[in-house]
Amino acid sequence: MTTHTEAEIASQPECWRRAVTAAPQAALPRRGERVAVVGCGTSWFIAQAYAVLREQAGHGETDAFAASEAPTGRSYDRILALTRSGTTSEVLALLADATTKTTAITADPATPVMTLADETVVLDYADESSVVQTRFATTQLALLRAHLGEDLAPAIRDAEAALAAPLPEELVTAEQITFLGRGWSCGLAHEAALKMREASRSWTESYPAMEYRHGPISIAGPGRVTWMLGTAPDGLADEVRSTGGVFRASDADAMAELVTAQRVAVARAHARGLDPDQPLHLTRSVILSP
To answer: What is the pLDDT of residue 284?
Structure first.
């Protein structure tokens, strides 16, 4: 029987197409604005990816913060809040105290974020039944990338290929996996590791690729995988393989590689007798008592 998580992972290419063709231009950050992007968990990692992409595209200075750690006293033209549930306590508290223009991207139009944010973007077609977030995260990033002027057609094709490809057994059975990224894909590397922990309780770590040599490579070895999202630094693959470990890299768009990581997380959950729809100790939204 297909789990909710598996069905949601499989629906991502179509969700991305819809996001690209229906991007709400007016509600999203304008070129030249100084923007703080905030979220919790997965949304924080997507914020990190978008912040790098927005600056690289020349749209303006962009910072990414966990909502609970956003600094006070800094001047921004807009706060962009990412929240699938629209009920996460830290995000709502930040929006309630905001003195600058705010935009929220959410999946549920019947939640408090709709009245707290000045402008909202609702991606209800990408909402999820699973606690583990997959398609909403990538769909909002597809939306934001399209808004920056990117052509998402290659990424969508890569995602379709990622869904059709068999999963390498060495990824499903690995004792340990470390995800690496560069630039915008650092956020996706952190998100891939989070998916492994949430869905399958796997031992995973994540780092900027150039930082991997500065200590973390010491855990590489037989039965362990170093997984690069994006273009690997010269020589890194050989260094990992010299330890006896597996090095994985792909020419696919990093969001498509994240889709493969999501699939591996589910496969590892099944192999361990876990339900990826209901990860231990987690709920769909973190709502703190007043």
So the answer is: 56
CA dihedral angle for residue 256, residue 262, residue 267, residue 270, rounded to 10 degrees: -160
Q: Which residue has the tokens 């750690």?
A: 69
Q: Positive or negative CA dihedral for 66, 100, 113, 14?
A: negative
How many Å is the Cα radius of gyration of the chain?
A: 18
Segments making up each domain of the chain, as ranges: 4-150, 157-271
Q: Is the dihedral of CA 80, 83, 87, 89 positive or negative?
A: negative
Which residue type is seen at 109?
Answer: P
Q: What is the pLDDT of residue 233?
A: 96
Q: Is the Cα dihedral 95, 42, 187, 197 positive or negative?
A: positive
pLDDT digits (tens, 9 = 90+) for 137-150: 999 999 999 999 99
Q: Can you read off the two tokens belonging to residue 197?
A: 């922990």
Question: What does pTM read for this prediction?
Answer: 0.95
If you classify domain 157-271 with CATH, what class do you get? Answer: alpha beta
Residue 230 carries which side chain, given as an amino acid letter?
G
The structure tokens 């987690």 sit at 282
| Same fold for the pair 4-150 and 157-271 | yes
Report the distance separating Cα 94 and Cα 213, nearest Å.
Answer: 37
Tokens representing residue 253 in the block: 């768009």
Which residue is listed with tokens 């340990």? 176
CATH number, domain 4-150: 3.40.50.10490
Give the model confidence (pLDDT) of 56-75 as tens digits. 999 999 999 999 999 988 99
User: Residue 234: what residue type?
Assistant: D
Paired strand residues for 66: 39
- Strand (E) positions, 42-140? 62-66, 78-82, 101-106, 119-122
